[in-house]
Write a structure and sequence with these properties.
The structure holds 2 protein chains of 2 kinds. Chain A is α/β, with parallel strands linked by helices. Helix content of chain A is 43%, strand content 14%. A 5-stranded parallel beta sheet of chain A has the order 2-1-3-4-5, sandwiched between helices. A two-stranded antiparallel ribbon of chain A has the order 6-7. In chain A, helix 2 packs parallel to helix 6. Chain B has one domain: SGNH hydrolase (Rossmann fold), CATH 3.40.50. Classes of the chains: A alpha/beta, B alpha/beta. Chains A and B meet through helix 2, helix 5 and helix 6 of A and helix 2, helix 5, helix 6 and helix 7 of B.
Amino acid sequence: MLKSSKYLLAVGDSFTDSNYKSKQYPDYDCSYDKWPDVLAQKMNISKVVNLGRSGTSNLYIFDTAIDHILKNSDKIEMVAIGTTEAWRFSPFNRWDINPLQIIQPSHLELPEYMQQSYKSIFAWVKFIWSNLISEKHGEETIRIFLRDYVRQVLRVQRLCKKLNIRLIITSLLGPINWWTINIIAKKYFDTTLPYDHKRVAAQMLLVEGAYDVDPTSFCGWPCFWEIGGWCCNTDPEWDKLKMEIGPDDGHPNAAGHIYIANKLYQHIQKNKL
Amino acid sequence: MKKIKNTSKYVFAVGDSFTDREFQSIAYPDYDCSYKKWPEILANKLNSDVLNLAKCGVGNNYIVNTAIDWILDNHKDIRVVVASFTEAWRFDLYAHWPINPLVHRYHTLEESTPALNLDNSEEPIPMLFNMKFNPMETASRELCDYIMKEFLDPTRFQKATEIMFDDYLANIVRLQKICKQFNLPLVMSALMNPIEYGAFKRISAPKETPFTYEQLANMFMHAQNFFSIDKKSFIGWPIYEPIGGKNINWELNRNNLTIGELDGHPNAQGHHYIAQKYYDYYFKNYVQK
């Protein structure tokens, strides 16, 4: 079979970034093929353009994908997008801000702009988290995140459909992780969440546009396992097969990237994308 | 001269408060703003219907993505896309909470040094005392202050300006490309300048701004995608006078086409003025041709 001269466009966060380096394990060799490379090999696509960027948000991921598609639609064989947590955001598509990192300062080094703006960002990050843990606003806040996420998914799905470009999206880091919110609630707000993980998943079903998402081009839709979806960080196989770099770094190791690529490849085959 | 035909297709408008059909003046709460806004006036001139999705307070990313979402589903029904862009430093958290760092900066100044702003400055700061923030905006205040300080710091303003201009132009190019893809006529303008120099003079006072108006315009010209903008579709391009642009916002002010001294939004005549500009550009580029 002849290889396509067109390329696979990959966009995502650190789970996709071809230059990913582990901060927790600086000596760990991360030079293995990432999932877009493995997927391209399986699909006989000779070239990969990987625009994955560590730490970034879905806003950056989808806007970057759309800009690239609009500029290069005739050169793209397939678009592959790995989405991230819905609470991240990137003002002006430049500063990547992860509220989780801000509220939970860890041993990880924050990017320079986050260090400088740490105090200034903290107030609204605290506002987001205090909303998330509140009985009154928690579910509503989750729906705000998810609505934004769904809009972005629909935008790229519709664009690719109009331009007749093959597309596969998946949620590598789930859009909302109840367990993470709960840990923060306990640790920093001395409380427990007034809703369980099933309620978080159920919010996806209440979000405008969620039923318009085309599941054939979204591997694992609707993301939450509680409502029949899939994403890496809630996949039981993921833990069992040791596909992470290590206990302190949940990014995929070489086997993890192959696992993701296989998952996507199977979905592509099954849906004849 | 060719006549513009009536079609069942509609004028599709996006923008901020300068375009929002529901706009209400914060500075003059009793001012009757029920007059027709420029997209409706333009649609009347074109004998078309109008769909106006503009929203007060939003940033350019919101404006463009709102347009794209609508165009992707409805491009066959659209006659012309008319967009008006806003200040480059605005952003919308999760497309839900619009944030304007400049407004927060004004508030900080008003509270910390009221005499400076109300009595001693050459130009009065637009009155924003009546403005009520949503809780997210209040929580974002320090972040907004941080962004504004980036602009006001002589060692950092260049980087901050570059980031804002790059993002501003990337949004415009995205909209241009979508319209081109679906063969849709597009007319754009900056009813609010991407970075308003006068505003910086006010928030910098009593210090000098770290840049001159000419330097600001020059930075705009060197931003990514500057030369990708279709100047025939953009009223007043390249916006800043020192590089040959026309500033509609200033024209409104000079010609008393604004609501009042404390509110620079267009009055009824101002909206007619803007609509005529859009009509002229549409006619020249898409009808006369």
